[in-house]
Amino acid sequence: MPVKGDVPWKRDEHTGAKHDIYRRYLERWFPILLNRRSKPWPSVTYAEGFSGPGIYSGGEFGSPIVAIKALTSQVPADKGVARFIFVDDDKRCTDLLNETLIRAFPKRPRSEDAMPVKVVTGTCKDHLEAALDGMHAWGKPIFANLDSWGNAPIPYRLLKRLATNVSSEVIVTFFPQHFVRFVSDMGEAGDELFGGDPTWRTVTDLAPAAKSRHILTCYRQTLKTAGFKYLLDFELVPRHGQPLYLVFGTGHPLGVQKMKDSLWEVDPVQGVGFRDPRDEQAETLFDIDEPILGPLTRLLERKLRENGPTSVQDLRTFTLFETVYRPEHVIRSLGPLLERGIIRTEDDRPLKIRSLVRHTSTPSDPRAEAAADAPS
Ligand SMILES: C[S@@+](CC[C@H](N)C(=O)[O-])C[C@H]1O[C@@H](n2cnc3c(N)ncnc32)[C@H](O)[C@@H]1O
Question: Which of 36, 64, 155, 157 is 20 to 30 A from 49, comparing alpha carbons?
């Protein structure tokens, strides 16, 4: 879907925050793989399926330049090979990207052998996998940035292949309203984006407030089914305009940890908040320095109500892998529940990482209840 208006276009509010996240993450990803002490990879690939022109009308650089700078600023030139693949189906974008690469790097920061760069005009669907094949990227780590306009025209087969490739990760930009709006036009043809699963189309039966969340849950499930063991998803919410959903998939828990660190370090002056897509009240964290913990309190309360007694340590793991928050937020978020008598610690002592916590509406040991309910 070529760009409707002019190329380049004005960078919007959440794009700045999105680039900040990419940069912070890639500044970790490249050195962890190429420059670690023990068994560094000889090569890695950074690939984009929707690269854009590499620059915005205000002169800010786009994601391809952000990615190359992340490599060159963090990894010495003699440490392995980093391949870059940029695919976009608008020729104006790929032409301008070629020009922008020269403008951003007048002197090549690495030799052609140490840093091959391929710019391809064509759709992600038809060209990204072929470009990865052509550059012999498989069998080595790949980071795929799939930043479409939010309609995510990404073949499920590509997601599956990435999920099963060694140390590979994906970040997808997703705009749920697109699917809510066009569900009847897309019909069964849309199922392919969800790995053939038609569940997303039940969105038509839902109340307006539940529609976006349903689509997000389905897409998250798509990445899980494709084989990404760990996911981190969140919404970027600008003060004006539509929120954008990002979902990151990785096979390694360290990936989630580093992505979450990158997220929480984002420059707060970007004027963009984060939202946990699972929060029923859709409360946004606008000030990351003083995070709003209400959504995490609600998620933990629900988890304790549904799962029975749980250790704070397990709640920290849940928080890391299943929410937008950090493990360090757990004890503070449980505080209000404890004060209101909604939860208690098993030993009635103050909360610690080792505490076992239970919801006061559930029995202290679900096994005891099961035993009581069992026919004698
Ligand atoms: C959101 S912009 C990319 C922005 C860029 N990643 C950045 O952060 O600087 C989306 C790009 O996808 C391109 N595009 C749209 N549909 C496409 C498709 N099916 N295959 C490849 N590129 C596509 C558009 O031309 C546009 O440049």
Answer: 36
Q: Under the phi-then-psi rule, with left for phi > 0, alpha for psi from -120 to 50, and beta for the rest, what region is 248?
A: beta
**Which atom of ligand 1 is nearest the CA belonging to 62?**
9
* Domain 294-373 in the same topology as domain 13-285: no
Instruction: List the one residue out of 41, 46, 28 whose CA is nearest residue 135.
Output: 46
pLDDT (tens place) for every residue of the chain, 376 residues total:
678 899 999 998 889 999 999 999 999 999 999 999 999 999 999 999 999 999 999 999 999 999 999 999 999 999 999 999 999 999 999 999 999 999 999 999 999 999 999 999 999 999 999 999 999 999 999 999 999 999 999 999 999 999 999 999 999 999 999 999 999 899 899 999 999 999 999 999 999 989 999 999 999 999 999 999 999 999 999 888 888 999 999 999 999 999 999 999 887 766 788 999 999 898 988 777 788 999 999 999 999 999 999 999 999 999 999 999 999 999 999 999 999 999 999 888 889 999 999 999 876 555 434 433 444 3
Query: Which among 55, 148, 192, 236 is the best mutation to test ligand 1's pocket, defined by most ligand atoms within 8 Å of the CB?
Result: 148
- The residue whose CA is least distant from atom 4 of ligand 1 is 52
Name which of 147, 322, 167 is nearest 232 in CA terms: 322
Ligand 1 center from residue 241 Cα (angstroms): 19
CA distance 303 to 162: 32
Class for the domain spanning 13-285: alpha beta
DSSP 284-343: EE--TTS---HHHHHHHHHHHHHH-SEEHHHHHHHHHHHSSS-GGGHHHHHHHHHHTTSE
Nearest CA to ligand 1 atom 6: 51
- For domain 294-373, the question of CATH label 1.10.10.10 is answered with yes
Domain boundaries defined on the chain: 13-285, 294-373
Tokens describing residue 289 = 């320095």
* Atom nearest to 147 CA in ligand 1: 6
The order of strands in the sheet holding 343-345 is 310-311, 356-359, 343-345
Going by their DSSP bridges, the two strands 43-48 and 142-146 should be labelled as: parallel
